User: Fold this.
Amino acid sequence: MTRKSYVSLLLLTFFLLLYSDIAVHSNTPNTSNIISETTNSYKIRGDIPIIFVYKKSEKPEVNIGEWFEISIIIANFGNTTAYDLVIHDENYPEWTIETQNHSTKYYVPLLDPNVTIYIRYRIRIIHSSQKNVSLGKATIAYRDSYNNSYTSISKELFVIVKLRTIYVDTEKIQRIMLEGTTIITVLPLIGLIIIERKTLKEYMSKSKKKK
Assistant:
């Protein structure tokens, strides 16, 4: 055997070992290397469903308490039908997020190639101390006609919340307090209670006179 033939044989053996390892351990095969086992031999199979899932918000920025729409977009880019699609969506905390027509789980019996479906619901953020709020991911589990199982996961969805800002004019507040705030003083006098009402301005002027 020549040296060239020996090197070629080694490369072929390495490739077969690598290929067999992928076939044994690939529980969720990817779209570029789908492998099926038939009588101790392996072959690449192209007739698979390829499910794409995308979660998007109607608006990138929202106000506290503002209703907006969420869409979960599911498309089959493969060349065969996907079966038993189970879609899991975020379980939103009720004390911070309110929803309409939302479910954490959806079921689609089949999705043919080149078909896209939309799941839509309304949502609003009722409380947040953060500017960037995560609305989570959408996950899909499905199978092909050979009963192989697959999973697709969307990117995490974020929206920007316009937090309310309160500007305090301290000088104005002090001026209002001096002019209009009422102070109630309770004076106990031998079983008799006298309630004296006066403005803060009057109270301060009397205090200065006493000094």
